[in-house]
Amino acid sequence: MSVQKMTTLAFFTTLSLAIFAIESAIPPLVPIPGIKLGLANIITLILLAHFTFRDALWVLLARILLSTLLFGQALSLLYSLAGGIFSLLVMAFVMRLLRKKTLFLTGAMGGLAHNTGQLLTALVITATPGVLSYLPFLIPGGILTGLFTGLCAGFLGKYLSPHL
Q1: Beta carbons of 23 and 152 less than 8 angstroms apart
Q2: Cβ atoms of residues 98 and 144 within 8 Å
Q3: Considering the entire predicted model, what is its pTM?
Q4: Fewer CB within 10 Å: C terminus or N terminus of the chain?
Q5: Region label for 99, one of left (φ > 0), alpha (ψ between -120 and 50) or beta (otherwise)
Q6: Distance between CA atoms of residues 147 and 149, nearest Å
Q7: For 83-120, what is each residue's pLDDT tens digit?
Q8: DSSP state of 30
Q9: Do 109 and 33 contact (CB within 8 A), yes or no?
């Protein structure tokens, strides 16, 4: 990996971590656990659109590990990894399917996948099928927040493209 690329990915990692930290300080938009904007996902979408899957994965993993060390608890690492990796896989598939043209749809599917990954992790950890009762709230929440992050990524990507 070249020094320039490593520096660029370090910049994106720092940016996503800063966005995560700022969002963590914002009170929840709705009183339902697990629903938040997920603004750091904007960086993941930009990386998927302009870099490689591997680059997006490294930045995602670095952000999750650093945010857990700085702001979270050990258990939050499992939920973040499950949601983040499942979301990244789904978004990469949707991007390939749609030829990187509709980031807002990619974001929506990523938001849905993120919530699904976290919910399945909660089901495995707690062995309580009752956690699935959150599904009717998490599905629209994931889609709406994913649409928002996808629109933001598409807007920013247009302005960043000449510089990437």
Answers
A1: no
A2: no
A3: 0.91
A4: N
A5: left
A6: 6
A7: 999 999 999 999 999 887 789 999 999 999 999 999 99
A8: S
A9: no
Q: How many CB atoms neighbour CB 63 within 10 A?
A: 24
Q: Say whether 36 sits in a helix, a strand or coil.
A: coil
> To which H or E segment does residue 97 belong?
helix 74-98
How far is CA 67 from each of CA 14, 95, 108, 128, 149, rounded to the nearest angstrom?
10, 26, 23, 27, 19
Place of tokens 């999750």: 64
Contact 84, 64 (CB under 8 A): yes
pLDDT of amino acid 26: 86
Cα distance between the two ends of the chain: 16
What is the chain's mean pLDDT, rounded? Answer: 90
Question: What CA–CA distance (Å, rounded) separates 93 from 4?
Answer: 27
Q: What are phi and psi of 45, to 5 degrees?
A: -65, -40
Angle at CA of residue 16, ends 5 and 68, nearest 5°: 115
Distances (CA, A) of 47 to 20, 95, 157: 16, 12, 9
